[in-house]
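Suppose a colleague, Dr. K., hands you the sequence of a protein chain of 263 amino acids and asks what its three-dimensional shape might be. Before reaching for any lab equipment, you can write down a predicted structure in token form. Begin with the sequence itself:
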Amino acid sequence: MHGPFAMQEPVTNKEILSVKGVEVNFNGFKALRNLDFSLPYGELRFLIGPNGAGKTTLLDVICGKVKPSQGQVVFKNSIDLTKHQEHQIARLGIGRKFQAPSVFSTLTVFENLALSMKQQRGLLSALWTKTTPEQRDRLHHRLEMIGLSSKVNDRAGSLSHGEKQWLEIGMLLMQEPDLLLLDEPAAGMTDSETEKTGELLHEISANQTIIVVEHDMAFVRQFARTVTVLHEGTILCEGSMEDIQKNDQVAEVYLGSRVERGA
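The predicted structure, expressed as tokens, is then:
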């Protein structure tokens, strides 16, 4: 779907998302300040920064949950997301996962995935409508990807915290989004679950673009390709994790210790 992008194509066509001069005010508090942010197709981008830096607010603006007081959010070089509602933005190809997993606990893993694929038909019809061979292939492909093939008939409520997170990511993927917004996907996971989550993100990014808000610096160091640091509602710096760790401003923002120690 996203494939390799030829070097001779215009630079603007390489961006799946372009945020221009966005401001968000909450009762006089500027959560985002004239923020500019761009994202190329197929990138796995990590957003980091202290609490209150504006990371989650930026995701909220992209998915339509929060409307900026000024600025544009341009998707696929032509769609201004600020003019669309949250449900419309989801249909345009942007999937959002919040920090706490949100799955149907009494339904099986398979049913959760099938329901996500057919959600426009409603809960009951989705469960009783037979899946086509092509849909079954998609379901099993996602089951393999999220590592839950052996638990296909288990109720979602019986899964571990990490498995519920993977299931919800799988549910998002069933909707075939072009851009995924993930808020602390590794929070509360065991070390092995965290490792599998990082590998999953890299696998997904072969076909989709991902923005990850993350506080776990060890996780960011291990799996980030490009990192954007937010501070007081604007971008402080961007680059590889190696570049970020050498940046004096970042060290100062994290009180000279958080990035260095991986806290």
